[in-house]
Amino acid sequence: MSSPRSFRPGRLAVAVALASALAGCTLIPDYQRPAAPVDAAYPSGPAYDTPAGAAAKPASNAGVATADIGWRDMFPDPLLQQLVDLSLSNNRDLRIAALNVQAAQAQYRIQRADLMPTVGLGATETAQRTPHDLTSSGKAVTSHTYQVGASLSWELDLFGRIRSLSEEALQTFMAQDETRNATQLSLVAEVANAYLTLRADQELLKLTEDTLKSQRDSYNLTKQSYDNDVATALDLSQAEVSVRTAESNHAQYSRQVAQDMNALVLLLGNPLPADVRARLETPGRLDDALIPTALPAGLPSDLLERRPDIRAAEHNLLAANANIGAARAAFFPTISLTGSAGTASASLGGLFKGGSGAWSFEPQITTPIFAGGSLLANLDVAKLQKQIQVATYEQAIQTAFREVADALAGRGTLDQQIQAQQLLVQADQRAYDLSQQRFRQGVDNYLTVLDSQRSLYSAQQTLVATRLTRLTNLVTLYKALGGGWTDKTVQAQAAAQEPQAAR
């Protein structure tokens, strides 16, 4: 066994290299992905059949998974694309999510740094006074010590505690990155839905304005008939009811259009540019062919790879699994190396003279013996946290499955509902036209006309609302399948990059 005098700094380097070679194992349990707690296929039946004649997606996207279709290809409307672009640049929720990713990345770098030795350079002065009754000469003595040198401190991660914590930080960082992707998916869908809602409310407002004008004309005619003792007071009251109802709806839809604009401003994160506001305020109509319906659903197992919220949940599960390794390693000894090398002297001028070299080497091992059960409790907590994350991961899968299944059911039935509603509008229009004709011929009273008019107006409102539901359901299906994380279709991006790579 070497004496302290025979130790050299070179031996410290050898010891460090040996410890580094040994520090490679961890006590993290082997990870196995939990089985997906959903059926192997989405529900089938009449409600899930793709409606005949549905608008097909662009041919350039044939054979591409929905999650790989860029939102620019999904939403070809130039104004909607500009709105999405603005939101991705300025939305505060997305900005917060991006900053959370950066913070998690920095935290990972901090944790990763603990695997490396800490080396510092410092200078110290120690001044000490010894009272006279403690010195051999009987006189008080004041001494000074000066030291300059480098210091090293390193915990040898023989049992993987630090590596486990580093892995936990890495998985947390990756979960935050997937959460940012999920936030982007949600933002793209929210902007699209807000735009569609604005167009639907503008269409309803225009419908209400036309209906209000027609009902005011009817009221004026009824008032003339009443003044000439042709119409009854009940006829006049019923005509006024229709007018007041339309006036109330007009105020409601005017308010909704203004609130829809405010919702878009919030999603965009900045005031609307003047040209964008002008185009949005121009009365529009829902474009029924704006969004393709032929979106491939794939299998539920695809969601595990396509949905960023599910991937984030799995990274959180992996982080909890890594934390178990750290909790296990706490039961084992902790080995630390502390050393310093430099020059020391009793006088400031003698620091760098010959013979002033000084070094120290202090290896330390700490073995837990009694901790009041805290180590075992900490391991129990780590295992319970993993079970919680398993349940959270499974719940994320189940939620995704339900969202896709609901959207598929909507896609399979809403076109049929719209067709039926269109036929109802046509029938109400014929009934209204016939009631007016019969009233002019004196066959029926005006109450029949008013009832037909109210029925037609209600059917028209329902038709607009159902068309909006169909479009927003397609947006939901696109988001539920993991679409919206890229602006261009992945296949198209790869094809565009191939010529550049060949150069």
List the helices and strands and how they pair.
Blueprint: H1 9-22, H2 71-74, H3 78-90, H4 92-113, E1 118-130, E2 141-156, H5 161-227, H6 233-268, H7 274-281, H8 300-306, H9 308-329, E3 334-345, E4 357-366, H10 374-440, H11 446-480, H12 490-502
Antiparallel strand pairs: 1-2, 2-3, 3-4
Helix pairs in contact: 3-5, 4-5, 5-6, 5-9, 5-11, 6-11, 9-10, 10-11
Q: Can you describe this structure?
A:
The protein has helices at 9-22, 71-74, 78-90, 92-113, 161-227, 233-268, 274-281, 300-306, 308-329, 374-440, 446-480, 490-502, and strands spanning 118-130, 141-156, 334-345, 357-366. It has 503 residues and is of the alpha+beta class. The chain has a four-stranded antiparallel β-sheet, with helices on one face. α6 (233-268) packs parallel to α11 (446-480). The longest helix has 67 residues, at 161-227. It is elongated, with a radius of gyration of 37 Å. The protein starts with 8 loop residues before the first helix and ends with a helix. Mean pLDDT is 86; it is low at 1-9 and 52-60.
List the defining traits of the structure above.
disordered N terminus, alpha+beta, 12 helices, 61% helix, four-stranded antiparallel beta sheet, 4 strands, 503 residues
Q: What integer value in Å does the Rg equal?
A: 37 Å
Low-confidence stretches: 1-9, 52-60
Helix count equals: 12
SSE arrangement, N to C: HHHHEEHHHHHEEHHH
Cα separation of the termini: 65 Å
| Class by alpha and beta content | alpha+beta
Lateral strand order in the biggest sheet: 1-2-3-4
Helix content: 55-70%
What percent of residues are in strands? Answer: 5-15%
Q: What overall geometry do the principal axes of the alpha carbons give?
A: elongated
Provide the residue-averaged pLDDT: 86
The total beta strand count reads 4
Q: Which sheet architecture does the biggest sheet show?
A: 4 strands, antiparallel
